């Protein structure tokens, strides 16, 4: 079978069945396939890649524990984001009890040598600052929708809420981001 | 169902999609190591959970059955065992006095 014909979701199900039997090669393939998006999502949420990587490690540890019980009723990626979302909630609660450094830090300024690149970099910085002000559920919802291409139903499963709630959060997040980005946004659009 | 919000403007969409995937070199091996550590830890916890009640049962058996004093010499141990057996034999053996024994012999001859 041509590699391009393989349905990734179907392949994930096949690999998870092998992981449940202790197949480490299958586990390696799953981690390799999903780690980029998971770390990207967590970094966008948390603002710190090092913390995102630690949480991503824990996501895969928990996935491995659950492998014997996992049933392919949803996509594996949906399940991974679900675990990640719960871990993020735990992390927020932990930091709320013991505040150390801000969880939602603004990124370091980019280095755009060209004007167009600088404009894009400025937009990115403005966006990151604006996103940091969003309530966690709004930020998660809009990232899962626009950044990670999940459907509303899938986002509902990830976050354990109704589709209506997801749509409300996405709508509010969009309005807040437009408002917070303000002039930076209009300069590029 | 239309998954995309048409109202999400292009710059915002581009900003949101930035960092969509951040693969980290070496992360896969780190994850596998973390998973192996977790597997080992859970195995130890399982064995500990099993061995504690087993140890308790073993201790109970030792108390109930009695364990010989390891300081005793074999001969002393044998004597002690014989002494305990003697008591059991004595209890199990019918007790006859001399008169009964004589009567039994006379009856046996007749």
Q: What is this structure's SSE topology?
A:
The complex is a heterodimer of chains A (189) and B (110).
Chain A: H1 8-20, H2 24-46, H3 49-66, H4 76-97, H5 115-132, H6 136-147, H7 152-159, H8 163-188
Chain B: H1 10-17, H2 27-65, H3 74-92, H4 98-109
Mind explaining what this structure looks like?
The complex is a heterodimer of chains A (189) and B (110). With 189 residues, chain A is mostly helical. Chain A folds into two domains: 1-105, RNA polymerase sigma factor, region 2, helix turn helix motif (Rna Polymerase Sigma Factor, Chain: A, Orthogonal Bundle), CATH 1.10.1740; 107-189, Winged helix-like DNA-binding domain superfamily/Winged helix DNA-binding domain (Arc Repressor Mutant, subunit A, Orthogonal Bundle), CATH 1.10.10.10. In chain A, 74% of the residues lie in helices and 0% in strands. In chain A, helix 4 crosses helix 7 (152-159) and helix 5 (115-132) runs antiparallel to helix 8. Chain A starts with 7 loop residues before the first helix and ends with a helix. Chain B is mainly alpha-helical. Chain B has two domains: 23-67; 70-110, no CATH class. The radius of gyration of chain B is 41 Å and the shape is rod-shaped. The N and C termini of chain B lie far apart (115 Å). At the A-B interface, helix 2, helix 3, helix 5, helix 6 and helix 8 of A face helix 1 and helix 2 of B.
């Amino acid at each position: 079978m041509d590699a391009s014909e393989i349905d990734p979701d179907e392949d994930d199900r096949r690999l998870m069945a092998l992981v449940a039997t202790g197949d480490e090669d299958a586990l390696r393939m799953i981690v390799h396939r999903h780690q980029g998006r998971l770390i990207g999502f967590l970094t966008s949420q948390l603002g710190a890649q090092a913390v995102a990587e630690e949480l991503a490690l824990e996501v895969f540890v928990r996935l491995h524990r659950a492998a014997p019980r996992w049933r392919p009723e949803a996509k594996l990626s949906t399940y991974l984001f679900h675990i990640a979302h719960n871990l993020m909630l735990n992390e927020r609660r932990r930091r709320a009890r013991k505040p150390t450094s801000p969880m939602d830090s603004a990124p370091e300024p980019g280095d755009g040598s060209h004007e167009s690149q600088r404009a894009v970099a400025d937009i990115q910085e403005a966006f990151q600052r604006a996103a940091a002000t969003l309530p966690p559920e709004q930020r998660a919802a809009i990232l899962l929708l626009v950044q990670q291409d999940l459907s509303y139903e899938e986002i509902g499963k990830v976050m354990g809420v109704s589709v209506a709630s997801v749509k409300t959060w996405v709508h509010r997040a969009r309005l807040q981001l437009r408002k917070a980005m303000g002039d930076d946004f209009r300069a590029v659009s | 169902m239309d998954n995309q919000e048409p109202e999400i403007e292009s710059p915002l969409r581009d900003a949101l999609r930035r960092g969509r995937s951040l693969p980290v070199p070496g992360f896969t091996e780190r994850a596998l190591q973390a998973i192996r550590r977790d597997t080992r830890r859970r195995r130890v916890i399982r064995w500990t959970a099993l061995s504690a009640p087993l140890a308790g049962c073993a201790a109970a058996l030792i108390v109930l059955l009695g364990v010989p004093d390891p300081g005793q010499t074999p001969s002393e141990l044998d004597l002690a065992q014989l002494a305990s057996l003697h008591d059991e034999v004595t209890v199990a053996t019918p007790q006859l006095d001399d008169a009964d024994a004589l009567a039994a012999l006379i009856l046996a001859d007749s």
